Amino acid sequence: MAANDSLLKLDGANCFEDRIGQEHGLRPEDLDKLQQRIASCHAELESRRGGDVGFMELPYDEELAARIVEKAGELRGWCHNFVVLGIGGSALGAIALHTALNHSFHNLLPAGHPGRKGAPRLFVMDNVDPALLSHFFDVIEDELPETAFNVITKSGSTAETMSQFLHVRELLRRRGADPARQIIATTDADPEKSILRRIAQREGFCTLPIPQNVGGRFSVLSAVGLLSAAVGGIDVRRLLAGAAAMDARCRSGDPRRNPAALYAALLYLFYGRGKPITVLMPYCHALRRLGDWYVQLWAESLGKRDGLETTDIFNGPTPVASVGVTDQHSTMQLYQDGRFDKVITLVEVQRVLPEGENLPIARGDCEDELSYLAGRGFEELFQAELSATRRALTDKSRPNLTLRIPEVSPWTLGEMFMFFEYAVAYSGSLYGVNTFDQPGVELGKQYTYGLMGREGYSAPAQP
Q1: Is the torsion defined by CA of 416, 251, 345, 256 positive or negative?
Q2: 409 near 20, Cβ under 8 Å?
Q3: 300, 348, 415, 421: which one is catalytic?
Q4: What angle do CA 444, 445, 447 make, to 5 degrees?
Q5: CA distances (Å), origin 52, targets 44, 189, 214
Q6: Known catalytic residue: 300?
Q7: d(CA 158, CA 365)
Q8: 3 has pLDDT over 70
Q9: N or C: which end of the chain has fewer CB within 10 A?
Q10: Quick one: the chain helix, strand, coil %, rounded to 5?
Q11: 128 falls in which pLDDT band (50, 70, 90)?
Q12: CB 73 within 8 A of CB 205
């Protein structure tokens, strides 16, 4: 495929009044009236490209991609376990990549199984719950010398990640291992800004950079997400090529040609009509953890107390992750019959199994009451579940969009990452907030530092 061969399609037809009625549906002229603002949002974002906003440039760093592929090859040659130590944007993208593009039971497969693709087991430790950590170290106890740790923190001082790092480094030293062989530090390239970078330089760790103009929740296509992906056998060059294809589509400020701009505009219009909850619901188990990544991207980027021009606006839609068909038997009851305050984005994967494969439900005789299932395949049932949900939502006047991709692949996942990152950047401009800061998160970090006794920080009066 060429660089501009985008495969992702956005269908917003079920957002308009001819499908869901006048009370809850939009009119075409509603979108037309917003077009000039969208064009201004696009122009403003383009003016910052490669300056203070860098996520759009990540697909084109061929030198970094080559370096990561080389390092991943080296790690695959000796390590049995590859462990990401990180939190938030340093972890969620890696999890989404691994669960989307590797075998659903990757870590349970024998090392020589074709489904493992010659990759080590992959773990992402995105919490400092002591029980979780204790149980994890039980798992790798006998394979510690064959375990690599990728420590990811842009600031180099994130309390959760650095506490994990300190524990791992000390554990390796106690076992007589060389931390420089088993630890990779992914952090800000400037040692003045990252204590982890300074430690890595002093102790000889392999290091990878996080660009200063790329925030954590936008960093999945940087070294933050790419190293674990490459170690796991994912074609990172195809991932980046897919992202570049979506970037090419998003170079237009016209929402009729730019799907991310259209998506941002539709959700913004519904927000103004009392529908502040946006649900991402992939019909594909492999994309289940993409929802967690989406929730962070949307919540941290758009949930702001202060706007660009005024204070105390307390703005932002509430993102929710669901998955089909599991949630047809739980939250779908709320989505269909609860308050009219939600917009549902369905992700349709047109071919879940590899081309030519089929998983039949049953080939032989069965009870008469179940005969409608006999001779059918699970793929057919799965697609019917999606079509039924979309129809039911539409019949009940619930706004819904469909993101459609032919299959889950490095290319299409790269497209989706770039699509949502552009969409949230446009959304921030529409809502009048700074998409790229996170003051609420920072306040919590400062209180944590104070409670743990870090110099220069004070504990809250009533924790």
Answers
A1: negative
A2: no
A3: 300
A4: 65
A5: 12, 16, 8
A6: yes
A7: 59
A8: no
A9: C
A10: 50, 15, 35
A11: very high
A12: no
- Cα(220)–Cα(145) distance, rounded to whole angstroms? 28
pLDDT digits (tens, 9 = 90+) for 402-452: 999 999 999 999 999 999 999 999 999 999 999 999 887 777 878 888 888
Of the residues 80, 117, 396, 445, which is catalytic?
A: 445
Tokens of 32: 């037309």
- Rounded distance, CA 400 to CA 448, Å? 40
Q: Tell me the mean pLDDT in the region 308-316.
A: 93
Residue 26: strand pairing partners: 16
Please identify which residue in the block is written with the tokens 């969009």: 401
Q: Between helices 28-48 and 410-431, what is the axis angle to 10°?
A: 100
> DSSP string spanning 30-81?
HHHHHHHHHHHHHHHHHHHBTTTB-GGGGGG-HHHHHHHHHHHHHHHTT-SE
- State the amino acid at position 336 in one-letter form: Q
Torsion of CA 266, 410, 96, 277, to 10 degrees: 10
Query: How far is it, in rounded angstroms, from Cα 461 to Cα 463?
Result: 6
Tokens of 368: 């008469």
Residue 70 pLDDT more than 80? Answer: yes
CA distance 373 to 295: 36
pLDDT tens-place string over residues 316-344: 999 999 999 999 999 999 999 999 999 99
pLDDT value for 4: 59
In the 8-state DSSP scheme, what is residue 287?
G
Residue 53, pLDDT above cutoff 90: yes
Q: Report residue 382 as tokens.
A: 């799965």
Q: How confident is the model at residue 354 (pLDDT cuts 50, 70, 90)?
A: confident
Catalytic residue chosen out of the listed positions 23, 192, 329, 355: 329
Report the pLDDT value the prediction gives residue 201, as an integer from 0 to 100.
97
Name the pairing type of β-strands 9-11 and 400-405. Answer: antiparallel
Is the Cβ–Cβ distance between 275 and 283 less than 8 Å?
A: no
Domains and CATH numbers, the chain: 9-48+239-438 (3.40.50.10490), 55-234 (3.40.50.10490)
SS3 state of residue 29: helix
Structure token pair of residue 64:
């970094």
Distance CA(183)–CA(201), nearest Å, equals 12
Cα 320 to Cα 277: distance, rounded to the nearest angstrom: 7
Residue 446 is predicted with a pLDDT of 82
Query: Could you give the residue ranges of the DSSP H alpha helices within 274-377?
Result: 290-302, 332-337
Which alpha helices (DSSP H) does 151-257 contain, by range?
159-174, 179-182, 195-203, 223-231, 236-249
